[in-house]
# Entry
Amino acid sequence: MTGTSSIPIIAAIIVVVVNKRFINRFKDTGTTNSYSARTLEELRLNRSLIFRRHVNRGIMIEVNGKYYLDEQKLAEFKAKKRRVLIPIVVLLLAVLLCLDLFLTR
# Structure
């Protein structure tokens, strides 16, 4: 055993699952504009940290105590996230390849 913990991986998976749950709940109920806004109780959601982060980012908008999903903001956020993550993944793969080449000599 290497002593590394799988806790960060499990935490990341949980964040992704909860994030998808929130997004899908809004999409499935058609809550994607101010006219269709609903309370969290109606959506059967709670005001978790992930939800509050979406509100702070403008992905979920509050109107008179009701919320809706701003799909344009969601698309912009996903695009921004990809622009950041893709170079990081490429760099990590390059480092791993170099390590593999160096260690197999």
Notes: The chain is about 65% helix and 10% strand. The CA atoms of residues 18 and 48 lie 10 Å apart.
